[in-house]
Amino acid sequence: MTTTMKISSRNLPALRRRSVLHGGLAGIIATGLAPGIARAAPIKLVMAHLNALPESAAVAFDWQAQEVRKRSNGELDMQFFGSTLISKELEIMNAVKSGNIAMGNPGGAAATVFPEMGVFLVPYLVQSYDQAYKMFNGKIGDTLDKQFQDKYKLKTLCFFDYGFRHFWTSKKAIKEPKDLRGAKIRVQQAKVFGDTINGLGGNAVPMAWGEVVSAAKSGVIDGGDLPIVNQIALKIYEVSKYCSMTFHNYGPTLNTMNLGVWEGLSAPHKKLILDTSREAQEKCRQLTESVDNFAAAKKELEPRGMTVVEADVAAFRKVAQEKIWPAYKTQFSGLWDEIAGFKA
Fold first, then answer.
1. What value, to the nearest 5°, has the Cα angle with vertex 57 and ends 159 and 306?
2. Hey, is 209 helix, strand or coil?
3. How far apart are CA 157 and CA 135, in angstroms?
4. E strands within the chain?
5. pTM greater than 0.70
6. Which residue in 59, 252, 326, 331 is deepest, having the highest Cβ count within 10 Å?
7. Is there a contact between 81 and 47 (Cβ–Cβ < 8 Å)?
8. Which pairing describes strands 103-104 and 250-258: parallel, antiparallel, or unpaired?
9. Are the C-beta atoms of residues 310 and 294 closer than 8 Å to each other?
């Protein structure tokens, strides 16, 4: 049965009465009498990211923000801020957890925010990009997503990475484990990074990124380690002479959304966010992997003054397996076996 609503012009102010009588449906919408027809205000989704363009993840997530606005016809107003909104990884994640911003990621500090991620950083446990991608886009990634929702109230939108880490140093190249003896190597503050450097034979110096450049210039540290894509983006060639391709830590991280914000989205909007997140993930991976080989690294870094060398990866792996793996195998027993036994 159809119900017809009658509007009495006697009950309307003069201006509204003229709108209804002379403007028809347009007048009703203009006067606010048909809220179901009017367009809802856009949902604002602010994302903070540690680095600005042209860093690989910044390129991908800036692209995602544009796509979300376009594909949602403006219903979702995703806004990307690279290095301009919040300047530290842990502050970004605290802002997402509290709901002050909708989206963000811990960058290279994933294992600090999410200790469960530490196992993937154990040197040489993750063997290849193909293995990593299939793990994080499959059952292992789904399990971590559920854990992070339950424990941290964060929805995982996608896992991405900055690639495998390589040493950058100022005094000499690091071609084999003995070259690390006495070297003061900056590491991020998660325990696994310090264990990696100390276990491989160097002296780990935990330090926030904001202190690294001045420490390298003053000789407080002899170097550090970063994926090639970040050595380029962060202009590490300004404070180092050598890049030694050791592939010693794989560096996964994840982009997240406040769980309350996520649960407040409609099903179509959730699908759009996940679809574009997976596409952004693929862009990150392409940009990272494209420079993570000897020829590409030489092409990118040597014109900027660095010498790129190939290291004895097998020798480094052997040391890691003997000195670093046993403690982590015990700590992460269940997940360790899944990763070690995972076939790409």
1. 120
2. helix
3. 15
4. 43-49, 76-82, 103-104, 154-164, 166-169, 184-187, 203-206, 223-226, 242-245, 250-258, 307-310
5. yes
6. 252
7. yes
8. antiparallel
9. yes
